[in-house]
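input
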Amino acid sequence: METAHFLNQISINLYWLCFIVYSTYWGLGFTRWKLRFPILLGMVVLHLITITLRGISIEYFPLTNKFESFNAFTAATFIILLINAKTESRIYRMSLFGVGYCFFVAAAFFPKGLSYAPPLMLTIWYILHVPLSFFCYALWVSAMAAAVARYFTSGEKKPYDQIIDSGFQYGLIIFSISMIFGGLWGYVAWGAYFLWDAKVVWSVIIWFFYATCLHLDYWQEAKRFKPPMAIVGFLILLMTYVGTSFLIGSSHSFR
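output
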């Protein structure tokens, strides 16, 4: 037990170190590609170490409360930013980084003590379901950031359209897989694949929304609606991820 608390304290100290580093990165702005990638890579690696130590402390996947949830979502967002680090648009990078940074700051306001997983989380389906959801959320945030950048760019639009399309496509694929695992988790935890629960209902809504976004390709005149829909999708994402926990309440809410 003492070892667990010791490791958790190291994890918390590293979290605050990440906080300082991320804030400095945000305050100094974004450097050129040759420096931007290694700096961001180092920050993400340090961030993942803090999450890993937290997991070792509780001897389970570190997604048992709101602090760990927001912290993990931030890491997923920055990993997507790292993948798209070559993108020259400063507005895109700032928009995507800004969302992740806001969640990272928000995580600081939640209790950081050890929080052990309740019985309903002790299944492989939970471990497969939640992290995949965060990565698809991060891809949809990336699509939103590209849409914002597209509106403020007078030059070539195609790179942003490609990021939007990738966010829609890969996000929906990953989310579909995540929902399958979520249904299996629901059956193990609550005895049903589907519940009339706020989180589940909004997850279905967001799935249909992004499925609709993909099908805009089959209607030439509707393709121009992709950027605004990427922004609207971000608002639906916030409701699905945050709103169901703080505004409505859900059996899926992190403690």
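quick obs: Residues 2-248 form one domain.
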